[in-house]
Amino acid sequence: MEDVSKILKKTDAKKRLSFPTRFLKSLPPFKLGSNAVEFEATDEKGEPWAFQCSTRKSRSYRKPVLTRGWVAFVKSKKLQIGDKVRFIKYKNRATATISYKVRAEKEIKIFGATFGYAPIPPV
């Protein structure tokens, strides 16, 4: 199991989600010559979300970003700047299949102080 998470910044919450380059090793392989890959992740309710991860065409600094499907996910979960998103990659040992989960977590604030993050409960 691999786990990658990020606290959302303004661009992440409004347009696209950028990740460190190490996120690429968790994704399905890119087709030869392609700078984008599509994958599906299920949320806490088991609903599938289709995402597209794109990289810069430059091989020296690939910087992955989630574009397609990302804004719909943000709106559905009512995510804001400061909230956290987590992608988890699972490998089924029996079948060797790979699956992904996506988890949204809201920032917990009390009297203006941040106390961590809590998963958004299924509705």
Indicate the topology:
Elements: E1 2-7, H1 10-14, E2 17-18, E3 36-42, E4 48-54, E5 65-66, H2 70-77, E6 84-91, E7 98-110, E8 113-119
Parallel strand pairs: 3-7
Antiparallel strand pairs: 1-6, 2-5, 3-4, 4-5, 6-7, 7-8
The end-to-end distance, rounded to whole angstroms, is: 26 Å
Listing every helix as H and every strand as E from the N terminus to the C terminus, the arrangement reads: EHEEEEHEEE
- Average predicted local confidence, pLDDT: 87
Assign an overall shape: globular
The percentage helix is 10-25%
GO molecular function: DNA binding; DNA-binding transcription factor activity
Organism: Salix dunnii
Keywords: DNA-binding, Nucleus, Transcription, Transcription regulation
GO cellular component, one term: nucleus
In summary, what is this structure?
With 123 residues, the protein is mainly beta. The chain has one domain: At1g16640 B3 domain, CATH 2.40.330. It has two helices and eight strands.
